[in-house]
Specification:
mainly alpha, 72% helix
């Protein structure tokens, strides 16, 4: 697939974004930590908090990254931004408003896989990118689509609760779309995005069937 921009232009968008929003990257990591803490909390409202924060992360990506920055080199980013806003609405509706997803972490295959995805999205992804020559600020940081999508699948897998299929379709689609960056631009850390997307999607559907709970 031929893209309407070069790898240099693509990396320049990351650079412009990272410089412009600093120190928001730190706040985004703090949000990620807060999500993880609430996942283990004993609270009937933790589902609302977690999905409210996930909604914020996806709103940030849709508005700030896609619309404010990525549209400079790719007009399709307007569409991406709108799709991300749909994902925000789905998180808010199913998770925050209706509070239908409020399970606890379980130390099983799903939970352990979720933890691995979290570690990859928050830690391994940036370290691997740096090793491969994608140095800050010309590199995707947490709060940008690819590592944050991996993180999202990690959180969803760690819930011992049925996850409505509607909220995992867009993250799966972005896992496939984002993977083309790995092919076209040599961003090999995005291979983990495709793995997380497909694996997470399938495992969530399998767990939904096992739980046999209608949301």
């Amino acid at each position: 697939m031929k893209t309407p921009f070069t790898v240099e232009q693509f990396l320049e968008v990351f650079k412009a974004y990272n410089i412009a929003v600093w120190p928001m990257q730190i706040i985004l990591y703090m949000i990620a930590v807060t999500v993880i803490v609430f996942l283990f909390a004993r609270s009937g409202y933790k589902g609302r908090v977690i999905f409210g924060l996930l909604a914020f992360l996806w709103f940030w990506m849709g508005l700030v990254y896609h619309i404010f920055f990525f549209t400079a080199i790719n007009k399709a980013a307007w569409v991406f931004g709108c799709i991300y806003f749909i994902q925000v609405a789905l998180f808010l509706y199913y998770g925050a408003w209706n509070n239908k997803i409020n399970g606890s972490f379980d130390n099983n295959l799903f939970g352990v896989t979720g933890i691995l995805f979290l570690i990859y999205g928050l830690v391994i992804y940036p370290l691997l990118g740096n090793f491969l020559g994608h140095n800050y600020p010309s590199a995707p940081t947490f709060g940008l689509p690819c590592p944050t999508t991996v993180f999202t699948f990690g959180i969803l897998l760690m819930f011992q609760s049925r996850i409505p299929w509607q909220i995992i379709v867009i993250p799966l689609l972005w896992s496939v779309i984002g993977f083309f960056a790995a092919i076209n631009f040599g961003i090999k850390e995005d291979i983990g995005l495709l793995v997380a997307g497909i694996t997470g999607f399938v495992m969530i559907l399998v767990r939904n069937k096992q739980l046999k709970t209608i949301p």
